[in-house]
Amino acid sequence: MERMMSDALESPHAFRRREPEAMPEGRTVFLAGVDGGGTKTTALVADERLTVFGEGHSGPSNFLRVGVEAAVIAVLEALEDACRQAGLMPANLRALGIGLAGIAHPAHYRRMREALLRALVERLAYGARDPQQMENIVLTTDAEIALYGATGGQPGVVIISGTGSIAYGMNARGQKARSGGWGPTFGDEGSGYDIARRALAAVASAYDGRMPPTLLTERVCRYFGIESPAELPRVIYGDATSPNIAPLSEVVIQAAREGDAVAREILREAGLELARTAIAVIKRLRLQQEAFRVSYVGGVFCAGDLILEPIRQKLREVAPKAELGPPLFPPAVGALKLALARLGLSDRESEAACSLPKLGVR
User: Fold this and answer.
1) Angle, in degrees to the nearest 10, between helices 192-208 and 261-284
2) What kind and span of H or E run contains 156?
3) Residues 65 and 38: beta-carbon distance below 8 Å
4) How far does the chain reach from its first CA to its final CA, in angstroms?
5) How many CB atoms lie within 10 A of CB 168?
6) What is the CA angle 215-208-200, rounded to 5?
7) Considering the chain, what is the average pLDDT of its residues?
8) 123-148 pLDDT, tens per residue?
């Protein structure tokens, strides 16, 4: 979920944050929230008011892409980084909320939870002095924390589009539904990977003479450091993997901003795919006639209206009362809120510290 956390922290509407030296005396409840995806992992350390004291970053933690060991290490490194910035030891944290990509299947969830719990004890001494800490770990999907952060726990839908893509939602009855998230081989429509794949296909077609020329040809060749599209098979099929290809979507977005018709059409099609993914969730939850929030999370949405406008148009056709807008909180804050709930603490006070004003689509 590229840029989401840094954008949130730089925004004048961002949640409250204090530097370590401003940490108030007497605070004893500290917790952490982790957002782990296919590109990077972000961790936040906060107190019970969700005032953030530390932010940490590391590499990808989707174990389906990088393996269990690398995914666990990414989570630990982000946690350690955030704790170091906050001036705390990981063992001082009372609760952890962790949302990871790639663990929706029960078998995947069990495998990752087992490895993560063992590593927390062995490498960070988490729970070594207080076994109750192990009961205060909430491990869930990245979609769950994105939804919780985006809507503040209220009914709504979140569209996630970073390296991969998925839509996830909840209605007023607490029923939840998801669509997408099938991975790059036969899914992830509208994701950074999908946009990159479409761009590569457009460049190949233009090179063959099957499609009009496009600015993407020069930009893609520059991105991969090659002289001609004829070299693409060597680059793509040699050692590139989806996380390496997905950032190419940024090249597409820039070309679209410069007016390239092919790039703009790729983003329009990606927006339509993401809208279809969200609409599938809306229909399963029977939200068509309800008023609810549809939020978007992930690096792809830095394209702004180039990708949001087709989503907005399709949503109006199916759910006219739905409000498309940015998330109330970043996913890592959603993870913090889940950790707070595990402790049985009300986040009513934390709303004053974290809440953002209601914003329209940027």
Assistant:
1) 140
2) strand 156-161
3) yes
4) 17
5) 28
6) 50
7) 86
8) 888 876 777 778 889 999 999 999 99
361 pLDDT band, cuts 50/70/90, is very low
Element (H, E) at 44: strand 41-47
Q: What is the pLDDT of residues 215-238, one digit of tens each?
A: 999 999 999 999 999 999 988 887
CB count within 10 Å of CB 242 equals: 22
pLDDT surpasses 60 at 16: no
- The DSSP output letter for 17 is B
Q: Where are the alpha helices (H) located in the chain, listed in sequence order? A: 4-10, 63-66, 68-86, 106-124, 132-135, 142-151, 192-208, 215-224, 232-238, 242-245, 248-257, 261-284, 305-318, 331-342, 348-354
In whole angstroms, what is the distance from residue 61 CA to residue 71 CA? Answer: 4
Which residue did the predictor score with more confidence, 315 or 356? 315
Tokens 């804050």 found at = 333
- Dihedral (CA of 76, 78, 80, 83) sign: negative
Delineate the domains of the chain, giving CATH numbers in brackets.
4-150+329-354 (3.30.420.40), 153-327 (3.30.420.40)
pLDDT tops 50 at residue 276: yes
Residue 242 has pLDDT above 50, yes or no: no
How far is the C-alpha of 294 from the C-alpha of 66, rounded, in Å?
Answer: 30
Contact 189, 297 (CB under 8 A): no
Q: pTM score, two decimals? A: 0.80
Furthest-apart CA pair in the chain: how many Å?
70
The DSSP bridge partners found for residue 293 are 156, 323
Task: State the pLDDT confidence band at 346, using cuts at 50, 70 and 90.
Answer: low
The token pair at 322 is: 């739905």
Retrieve residue 233's tokens: 């098979």
Q: Within a 13 Å sphere around the CA of 168, how many CA atoms are in the beta-carbon half?
A: 23
